[in-house]
Each structure stands twice: as C-alpha cells, then as structure tokens.
Amino acid sequence: MAGKRYNPDGPSAEERALERFTELMIKKISSIKGDWKKPWFTENFMAWPKNLSGREYNGMNALMLMLLCEENSYKLPVFCTFQRVSGLNYSTDRQGNHKPLTDANGERLPQVSVLKGEKSFPVFITTFTVVDKETKEKIKMEDYRKLSPEEQKKYSVYPKLNVHNVFNVAQTNLREARPELYEKLCERNNLKRPASLDDEKMAFAPLDEMIEKKLWVCPISLEHQDSAYYSIAKDAIVLPEKSQFINGESFYGTLLHEMTHSTGAEGRLDRIKPAAFGSKEYAREELVAELGSALVASQYGITKTIKEDSAQYLGSWLDVLKESPEFLKTTLFDVKKASSMIAQRIDAVAEKIEAKERMFYSSVAYLQFSDDTGQFDELKEKGDYEGLLALGREYYDGNGINEKYTYLSPLQNKGDDLLIEDKDFAVVYNGSVGGTYEVMLKFTEQEIRDHIKQYGVDIAGETIKEVARDMVAEQFDRLPRSPIFEMASGDILYLEYNREKDCLTVGTATNAGLAVQHSFAYNHNQDLDSNLQDVLTTLKACPEYQYRGDAEERVNPQIDLMDADNDGNTQEVAHEEREQEDEYVPYRRGR
C-alpha cells in the first residue's frame, strides 16, 4: 500500500483500527457501486449504536458500528467492552472487593461472557488533558467546559485519540444469562420513523420548520427546477420543490446532503474551498456530504440513498480508500463534526416545536356571583362569543401564571363547556349551581418551564409539578451516566432520580439495579448541581461515610458527573484498558 511507513514493532492500535474501518467502508461502497440506488443503511440496521448503559456512540464510531451491524446481521446495535461484560457477573463492596451476583435463593447467576472465538471491533475515544499555561496544573475537562471563554484562554487543551475494543451483545451469551436485561435493551432500541414520508404531506416537522423559519446556518430555497446544490459563493442551498421528489425520504435525504456541504463553509467548520468539479478535493467533499447526510438521516429513521450526482465518485472513493486508510480517518472526523452540527440544530428545533404543541390553561378569574356573571350571561344569550372573550380579557390582572390552578385542559369539572378561545385566552362556562364562568390564560410548555426555573413549585398545583418532574428526569437522561459519590470512607454510591416520588435516591449498584439506602426530596428552587451538592453534604455528615484508615489512603469525597472521555462511550471506557493484541477471545471456563 502506498503511503504506509515501515514500523518495526508492527502496526499500531490506531492503524489496525483504520484498516478495519477501511475494510468495512470498501465493502459498503462496493455494494452501492453495484446498485447505486441501494441505501447507505437499510431499515433493519438504522438504529443508533449505544453501549449497555444507553449512551450513544459519537457520529464517527456510530457510522462504522452501523455498517458492522449490517454486515453481521446484528439486530441490536448495543456494544460493550470485554471488561464491561465481565462486570455483569459481580458487585463491588466498599473495599473494592468483587462478590459474585446471586438470585433471590442465593444461587449464583449464570456467567455472562463473550462467546468463543468472537472478534472485537475498534472504536476511537478522544480524551483531553487540560493544563494551566502558567502554573502547569491540570483540571478536569468538565471543569474546563464550565469556564467562561476568557478563563478558558488561560489553559492549553491536549487531545489524545485512544482505541478501545467492543463486542456486540450478539457476540455474548447475554440473552440467555440475563434475559430481563436483554429484553430491556430490545425495548430501548426500537427504531422510530417519521410518520409522513411516503404520502403527499412529506412531513418531517423539524426540517420543515428550519426551512420555513430560516433556522439553518444559511438560507434554504425550494424552487420549481431540476437541481439541488449548495452555492459556496452565495452561501445558500437551493432544492426543487417537495412535489418534484418521489417521496419524503428522497427530499429530506437530498436536503441533508446539501446541509452537510454548508457546514464546511468558511467561518463554520472551514472544510471546503472552491474546487474544480471532478477533482480529488471535490470527490472527498462529496463523500463527507454522503456519509454525513446518511448518518443524520438514520438518526431520525430516514433511509438515505446516494445522491445521483455523487454516484460517479464511487470508483474514485474505492481507489483512494485502498491506497490510504488515513484518508478515511480524516474524512470520518469531518463527517462527525458536520453530522453533529446538523443533529444539534434539528434537536433544538424539535424541542421548541414540542414545547409549542402542548398548551396549558391557567385560571385568572372564576366568576360565580350574579353581579359578575350578568354581563357574561347577556353576551352568551346573544351568541356574542367574541364579546365574551373580550370581556374575559378585562378580568386579567397581568400577574401571569396562576401556579395552583394551571391545567393541560380548560375543562376540569363535570359540566364544563369551552365557549370560545383564541391563542391567548379561553372562556369556560358551567351551567350547574346557577352558572359560573372561568377565564383562562394560555401558556406554552416553554413558558411554564421558564416559570418553574424562576419561581420553583412551592405553591404550584399538580400539573406544574408534573412538568417540573419531567424537567429533572430529562436532565438526568442527558447526563453521560448516573452521578457517583466517592465518599471519604471509600464507599462508592450511585444516585438516581425517582420521578414518581420526586426524590433523589442514593445507594449501591447491583445487577438488579440500585439498592436504595437514602432518599432526598428534590428541591425545585435549586438547580441539579445544587441538589447534588446538598445530598453530598448530608451524606458526608453520616457516621458510616466518615474517613477510615491511614491518612495516606484517604479518598476525597466528590461528585463524578462525567466520564474520562467525551466521545461517545461511557462506563466501559472510563478506565484505561490494556490494548488487546489478540482480538480473538479464547475459550474461558467460568470459575
């Protein structure tokens, strides 16, 4: 192979990983070259790869693991390291000793193991060392991210690319040894596809909103013509109208292709420069756009076939991949950055749409005496509902949300009748007990959430408290993994949020889940970090978690919210693993 340098010690872990990546990519592109209307990822293998804890792999690793799933017909896109598989067989006590897991009868559970002869697959994990430029002191990457841009300038950040080897769950006996866990993994990894891709509507709300409201990084125009392109000079995307495409997947796939191109503009990812059509630089950018758009499309359940204009580059892609695996590495890093940029914007728009869709009704006036209801009765008898709405507005005192009496529906009592509403107000009539009127002010979910952040839920009714619990649960879902408390006694405590009871639970990790030892009511007047710190302060005062042992062995209590890496893998790569020289796993007898 041209471009390869002689290494007396043999290829490095990174070089071996690139060779595996290149082999997979060559097979995929070769298959598409034989039928260029074949999708990059078939429907059965589009679900996003995750680890056992549910953490998603980054775009570069995800792309290769999806290809691996398709090549080997792995139905579940769930992966784990050898160490993580072994860890399913024991719990760890306070002194760090391993104890075999047992069932309710005290019998040892079946051993989970990698199947004989199975071959691992490499993933790239980037770790960062952050060093103060003056004092040379190191700080954690998560602490660096919390600093202001000005404070960050005082530090140097050194990335390091590490290679870790993972196995698909199909390469283990997990299904037989832990059937309940396997079923949970199946439930978590069902592919969700947009509802309207084949009918006339062709709707995928986040992208439609981005086009209509001009929410992308550059303008997107739909015109009745026959070409789709991104103009570098104008920094604009032009596509044919939706009706000119055969289906929604063709339209959105083409849109994502051009959006990927636009991420590379100067001042964004600085990836693309003007290049001659058909040149090597142009061909590489087309590969980035194809892989990036295919990756994003699969993330949202959309099948992506190669753009017809890009099909002519299939042969050149194959040639350069065979010539230089390093080409794939740099391309995949660009794909990762571009796809992440697009997915983040889609998710942000989707969250806003979801918040807009749910409306809340907050009572601002409840009228039950004849002096108050007389005018309403006259307007109602005349059928002047617009007048009813205008009169109702006059009763609003401008105080905003009535926390105690806010609901998802304006109809809360038997006999309630919604007479009229507009985008801001609603008037509800109840004919029982002489007739009452209730004027309700409408709020979006985002407005409710903003109110909770500012005022808490001390006097709120159940509806607002439900939203507050949703907000905390969502925060926990976004954490790389559950927070861990490392106590001075040496105890390792895990923390979870119990949404039903609205409390933080602390305990030890077992195969069956968290063995709860403490519960703390969640304080919605504080943010998550403050709640965690309060819990830690309380636990530190408990006698059982006080320091034990020699001074040199003392463990400083802290909250561990992040993994060592930030690049798509969690617990199984939190500690550095020894590189596996022989990727074939020999037969091991359980002890």
UniProtKB/TrEMBL annotation:
Residues 17-167 form the N-terminal domain. InterPro entries: ArdC_N, MPTase-PolyVal. It comes from the Bacteria. Residues 224-326 form the Polyvalent protein metallopeptidase domain. Residues 561-591 are annotated as: Disordered. GO terms for molecular function: single-stranded DNA binding. This is DNA primase.
